[in-house]
Amino acid sequence: MTDLAARKAGIKPHAAADDSEGMSYLESIPRRLVTLYLPLLLFLIVLLFPFYWMALTAIKPNEQLLDMEKVSPFWTWSPTFQHIRKLLFESAYPQWLWNTMYVATAATALSIFASVLAAYAIVRLRFKGGQALGVLIFLAYLVPPSILFIPLSTVIFNYGLFDSPLALILVYPTILIPFSTWLLMGYFKTIPYELEECALIDGASRWQILTRIILPLAVPGLISAAIFCMTLCWNEFIYALTFINTTSQKTVPVAIVTAFTDGDQYRWGSLMAGALVGSLPLVILYAFFVEHYVSAMTGAVKE
Question: By CB count within 10 A, which of 20, 150, 235, 300 is most buried?
Fold first, then answer.
């Protein structure tokens, strides 16, 4: 069938079909191998090698950890689970993991609640200076924690919260709320104003609009902000080292460093096992919600 006959019959010609497919049909397999698959392979190697090294160190016997000349440092033929067994059953690691999860969950919930209210007020209420306030809130995120932990430690000590998980729960939002507010501001801007105007005409209050219209539509943004807060709380080190002194109250990043280090001697097997096991909850979290995280970050960056 010719192109003229195809047009008369209402069928697009073959050239149009090729154009709809883009220019991918012009790329050869060798070129795609060099421009796409090889860079992806290098990226995966760089990204996954630290996890491979942690897992390998966690199952290596002690003699292979100390002497790498007789055996290959990148493989072991006699794996052992003694480091993981010592970590889980001969230390307080389950308690440290629970402390980390408790602190991260509570601080994340508190931060998301405050960020939702701040982002909604700045984006939707349209008061004078709202955009400048949003920029200032984001700039607060850029302040290094190493500058703030000394004055914050004084405040925590004066209020009697030192050596308590509550200290971390109340301090972590100071570094979580600025970025979460900026992220949610960008996502709230993608929600049409007409929905809110219609609700106001029907007599809905601001709280009803927020809870029944805005938040259900902003679930990907909320998930993204929660994942960010959870990750930052889980890996935070300076505040946890400063405010917590009792071993049973410590979180995983601080506890494994202090518990498996004897002076200048490091028990690398247990250290790497603790780091590996401690990263598994975050890996599972990202695996389930990575699509929401990417979509929310894309919406925030566009704004």
Answer: 300
Crossing angle of the two packed helices 173-188 and 219-235, in degrees rounded to 10: 160
pTM, two decimal places: 0.79
Sign of CA dihedral 166, 172, 174, 177: negative
Tens of pLDDT, residue by residue over 44-96, are 999 889 889 888 888 888 877 777 666 777 888 888 888 888 888 888 999 99
Count of helix runs (H) and strand runs (E) in the chain: 18, 2
Average pLDDT over residues 189-212: 88
